[in-house]
Please model this.
Amino acid sequence: MNANINIVESITRIDNLPSLPAVVAEILRLSRSDDVSMEQLADVIQTDPALAAKLLRLVNSSLFGLSHEITSIRQAITLLGLRTVEMVAVGFALADAIGTRIDGGFDYEAFWRRSLATAVVARMLARKAGLGLAEEAFVAGLVTDLGMVAIWQGAPEIHKAIEELRTQTGRDTTEIETDLLGLTHARIGGDLLRRWELPDAICAAVSAHHGEELALLEGDSLALANVVHCAACVADVFCQEPDADALDRASAKCIERTAVDPDQLHELLRLVETHVRETAAMLSVPIGQMPDYTAMLDAAAEA
Model:
């Protein structure tokens, strides 16, 4: 038991992860202020030219679907609002902090493929469901699997054992993590984000993205967590070989938990791959190959 506690303590040490970028810390500080101005937020974002450029590329992408081009951070804030720009900037800066290193110890392609799928679906689901937390859903989706990075960096031998058992037995990753660690990557990720002082609702959604702890939430936190949980289920389907039954189950969960219209959900699913690839290019992160779901979606529509 003591050995297990020591392993968990090693994993959850915040210094196992990159430092929170200064620009994110300042944006989060401003977001907690009641009198932050457009000029203050724009000035902070523009201290990181690469972040500002990525943010503008995103808001001009098909994911946002704006009717005209946005050419400045101030214009983006005016049109989209302070909170939207704050959350998008935080999400992109966190993605840079997590990194894209490719080595034999961690599959960053699989990590980013699933993370971006979760982020994209969460944002679209939140909008379709009329939830006013679409950008928080995007950020939460982007960092749902932060705990996996922490396990790999804090206890690489445990990460390797988890992956080997998952491959050999087909068991769910969270079940194996619970057996070996007593908690899951979802819980670890949520705890780490709390130490980074991200908004409570985002931290709770990350902790609950596999369905754990949903019963403990209420109000907007529950609504956000439900969206992210559903998005994670859809991302699982889009990051494996096409499986019509798995897609049906994920779709049914989305409809039940978010009350999204079935036709709108079907339309949303057709856009996932395009938006994931577009966002991956903006962030310069690797996602490898994604299965082609077009034929399967057509078959599901005809069934």
Q: What stands out?
A: The chain has a mean pLDDT of 86.
